[in-house]
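Lecture 7, part B: from sequences to assemblies.

Below are the input chains for today's worked example.
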Amino acid sequence: MTQLRAMAPGSVGVKTIPTRELQPNPHNPRMLFDRDPLETLKNSIDKVGILVPLTVYWSRAEKTWVILDGQRRWMCAKALGLKTVPVNEVAEPTPVQNIVTMFQIHKLRADWELMPTALKLQVLMDALKEKRDKQLADLTGLDRAVVVRCKKLLSYPKKYQDMMLDPDPERRVKADFFIELNAVLRDRNVRRMTWFRPERFTSQMLKRYSKRRLKSVTDFRKVKQYINNAVKAGKTRVITQRLREFAEEPALPVEHLAIQAAAVSAKVHQITTAVTRLEVMLRHINAMDYYAEEALWSRLEALLQLIRVKLAEVERRSR
Amino acid sequence: MRNPGRRGGPRDTERFNGWVERFAGYHSHVSIARIERWLAQFTEDHRDLAARILDAVEFYRPDQLAGAYRSILGALPGWSRNAPQRQGRWRFVAFSIRSGESGDSMLATFRRANDLTGARFNELFAYKADLLKENLGPEDTVVFVDDFAGTGDQAINAWKEALGELLPRRPKAFLVLVVAVQQALRRIAEETPLMVRTFRHLRPRHNFFANECTYFSRAEKGTVLSYCRRAGKSNPQGYGSCGLLVVMAHRCPNNSLPILHGRSTAFRGLFPR
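Predicted structure of the full complex, as structure tokens:
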């Protein structure tokens, strides 16, 4: 043992277990860990030993020690050839306790597949009879947005959930596909369309996805936007037909849903909102309080000039 | 790999008909015209070699897949059609789902082959997404059904990325395959708790480019490699350098030679994927 290790305080109430008798926790989301932090930990353990005992439990079913917390320390111990590791033993957790602990301990990495996490969340939701996003986020330590995403995935039939679990990464359908599609499936205007069947529409979009006829899964946001714009512009009948065509013919681009009048209508709404906001602000200011604000007055003069030009273009007189 | 015909054998009607009959059932129909077009991609000097490659292809018809699944299930410990005689709970799960096809087609083949289509067997068939809440334990068995493993990459990654988390109480887990390469079997056994059961086990001599494959000379292998480079630049020896001559009726694995399945502008395989 190195001098530094010998200086580490002894542990009370802790025992040691042969390193090879430990098993990783099956609920530990991923076996992958970032290399550099692991290397740093390994160097530290090499110098001073494992200062914080691992938390383990004895699995009666598997007749083995299972790590609840400390897998990285264990991995480093194995790499260093340490024969034993210090552990604190706890009672075997229930599956729900185990899942919650794993969520709390392990931060969700952006590159992890989401479906296994969603399935564990389902176990918790069923066992605890808790469906509220905030409560689930507090319980698991997951971001609320992640909880929402998981619940969207769980809303799909199992056959689609399995597509996100496919062993072939090229064939696997990304969780983002189903998450982005969800907004269209739940759109109330879409759900009112008499031809619309959620499962059939999902299959049609999957076909489009597999034939690479979607530039990006965020195309579904455009779909929803085009639908919203069309409905606001009173073009519901047109968009209903266009969406059906889009669903049935994978070769049609997303732009097939763009209705010119609807696009204009959306722009009008945008400009009117901005003008109204400016109008309200100007009405409420006392001009004399801003007497010396040259930049402000210059901009307003320029805006006034621009408005006169635009009005003239549409043959309206500015009053 | 089948024993190919002798060098210089006639490419006559009988031979063509033999190919058409043997490859009948491939999802993209293999006709005489298509075989002729495939052979025409080789120079005249190399067509005899190409013909011998077709002779050597191992083709698995649907009835052979069914037969394989029947024999494998019958040998799994603890299995019985009769529920009271079965040991623990059993679940059959598709290992992979192809979204463009009828989904879990291998599982459907397995189910039909084993005469488990009755409604009373419905509970035995599950999705992967069901497994976690089923909470299967050491006394239970889950059987993943697929068709082929070349390198074992998919099985290993599948375990590490998802399946291990979905089976936390570690039931007995079998991976049932029709065909598997020896290196895949070894790697899966070393790196996962999955127990592989396979009908056909391919050894190094089934790798076209291996020294153990003595049906073709080194010069012939070099010639084929040059065509394979045209058909599939990224894996000219087949994915994982498996160099296989294996085709199944529903698909040609990408571990097989690219001249069989490739779709480049320079070369079109006879068995497109």
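Note for the exam: The first strand of chain A starts at residue 15 and ends at 18. Keep this in mind when comparing with the next example.
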